[in-house]
Automatic annotation (TrEMBL):
<keyword id="KW-0472">Membrane</keyword>
<protein>
    <recommendedName>
        <fullName>Putative zinc-finger domain-containing protein</fullName>
    </recommendedName>
</protein>
<feature type="transmembrane region" description="Helical">
    <location>
        <begin position="103"/>
        <end position="123"/>
    </location>
</feature>
<feature type="domain" description="Putative zinc-finger">
    <location>
        <begin position="16"/>
        <end position="43"/>
    </location>
</feature>
<keyword id="KW-0812">Transmembrane</keyword>
<dbReference type="Pfam" id="PF13490">
    <property type="entry name" value="zf-HC2"/>
</dbReference>
<keyword id="KW-0805">Transcription regulation</keyword>
<keyword id="KW-1133">Transmembrane helix</keyword>
<dbReference type="InterPro" id="IPR027383">
    <property type="entry name" value="Znf_put"/>
</dbReference>
<keyword id="KW-0804">Transcription</keyword>
<dbReference type="InterPro" id="IPR041916">
    <property type="entry name" value="Anti_sigma_zinc_sf"/>
</dbReference>
Length: 255
């Protein structure tokens, strides 16, 4: 019978006070400890009651209190070894679960943090010491795209090929850039048929450049592959431009 039906037996949650007072018999204490091992609310209440020990100890020392010392001893009673073992096991398991969750979150965050710079270096090419990282991700994507447009500017002699793929959200593009020397900071700009301009990506060109056929180093002979995206569908695109941050157009590729 439940307490609401008039039973004199308190609920397990209400037993925390009796347990803290030390007035439960062994069977009742054992049953409550089993409940306590899985009940955070009762564990919190027990912690709060345990925090009253200094006050209870002071109460036990009051003069003329008669039986008060015994009550104080009962109120300040500590959990039994059985409870301690169960609580330690429970806390250890929860901490292990938290560590596992933290590890997965950190691993996922690290993957995102690492992937960003690596993708930028791999696609953008080049490094501080003059070397160039192979553009595997962008170049691999470029090779799978069948819709490609190429142009070479008669004035700058910069050559560019833009590969496109239609997506539900718009257009994915990969630029192959050749015969460009630095130092420069450039952007791939999409120009829509309605006149809107969208920057799809940007990068830096090192001194030795990209795709220089007569270059002295193999790194400088390699073209740049860099990806970008925009919300426009391929049939909404008029052309692409490779422009410097100063606004100079290096090459235009018609869509």
């Amino acid at each position: 019978m439940s307490p609401s039906q008039g039973s004199s037996v308190p609920s397990e949650h209400e037993t925390v006070g009796a347990y803290a007072l030390g007035i439960l018999d062994d069977a009742e204490a054992t049953a409550f400890e089993a409940h306590l091992a899985g009940c955070e609310w009762c564990a919190q209440q027990l912690d709060e009651l345990a925090g009253m020990e200094p006050m209870l100890a002071a109460l036990a020392d009051l003069p003329g209190s008669g039986s008060t010392p015994a009550i104080g001893d009962s109120l300040s009673a500590r959990p039994s070894p059985r409870l301690v073992e169960k609580l330690v096991d429970d806390v250890a398991e929860k901490r292990a679960q938290k560590r596992r969750r933290s590890f997965y979150m950190i691993a996922a965050a690290a993957a995102l943090i690492i992937a960003g710079p690596l993708a930028a270096v791999a696609i953008g090419g080049g490094s501080d010491d003059g070397g160039q990282v192979t553009a595997t991700p962008a170049q691999a994507t470029f090779s799978t795209m069948s819709d490609k447009k190429t142009a070479t500017d008669a004035s700058t002699h910069v050559s560019a090929t833009v590969a496109m793929a239609q997506k539900v959200w718009g257009t994915e593009a990969v630029l192959e850039l050749k015969n460009v020397k630095g130092p420069l900071k450039c952007s791939l700009v999409l120009v829509a048929k309605n006149g809107q301009r969208v920057t799809m990506s940007s990068w830096s060109v090192p001194n030795w450049g990209y795709g220089i056929t007569d270059a002295k180093t193999e790194d400088a002979k390699k073209p740049l592959y860099i990806g970008g995206a925009a919300a426009f569908q391929p049939n909404e695109i008029h052309h692409f431009e490779v422009v410097t941050f100063e606004g100079k157009k290096l090459v235009q590729v018609n869509a």
